[in-house]
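wait is this the right file?? whatever heres the structure
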């Protein structure tokens, strides 16, 4: 792993202190903040220049850890066990305690378990964190930390350099409704799974 334990520990401390951290996933680089800290989540929206009506997802080291924050039925459990960790975001019903600022006031929230050793090592230390691309809204997602906008980097507390990432964004799926909301990595496989259970 290219990132050291000291770098991971410093990044986790920054998140606990309300800061922002850029981290690699198997898709693109993400921007992490404490997903339960309303001020930290607001900082993500500000850093990205993103509308507060455009909800964020949150990330965990294991899908079962997410069950403390979302309600799922048996089909959603089966889907998560099949596809997570992986380049898929599963939209689920949120539980109380998940801040409205994260979800834009909606009653559903995206769950992500990235299949990347650096991301998982960070999440083992601090979770849940926000799962959103590390870029200004409307700009291309970043697959190489060297391509991060210097002005964007100035607004974060740490960048975990895990090397270049694959670049195809996660597929966003609402399993309960049998819908793919955004086609990305593994979309055809996800679609086939949903059709088998329709």
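ok assuming it is, sequence goes like this
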């Amino acid at each position: 792993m290219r990132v050291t334990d000291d770098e991971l520990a410093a990044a986790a401390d920054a998140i606990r202190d309300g800061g922002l951290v850029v981290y690699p996933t198997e898709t693109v680089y993400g921007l992490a903040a404490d997903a339960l800290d309303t001020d930290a989540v607001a900082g993500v929206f500000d850093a990205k220049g993103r509308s507060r009506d455009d909800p964020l997802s949150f990330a965990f080291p294991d899908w079962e850890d997410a069950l403390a924050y979302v309600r799922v039925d048996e089909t959603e459990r089966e889907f998560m066990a099949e596809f997570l960790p992986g380049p898929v975001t599963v939209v689920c019903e949120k539980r109380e305690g998940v801040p409205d600022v994260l979800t834009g006031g909606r009653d559903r929230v995206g769950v992500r378990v990235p299949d990347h050793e650096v991301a998982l090592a960070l999440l083992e230390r601090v979770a849940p964190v926000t799962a959103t691309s590390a870029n200004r809204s409307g700009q291309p997602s970043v697959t190489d930390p060297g391509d991060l906008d210097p002005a964007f980097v100035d607004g974060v507390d740490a960048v975990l350099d895990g090397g270049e990432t694959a670049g195809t964004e996660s597929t966003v799926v609402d399993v309960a409704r049998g819908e793919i909301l955004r086609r990305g990595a593994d979309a055809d496989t996800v679609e086939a799974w949903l059709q088998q259970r329709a």
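Residues 99 and 141 are 25 Å apart (CA to CA). so i think its the right one actually
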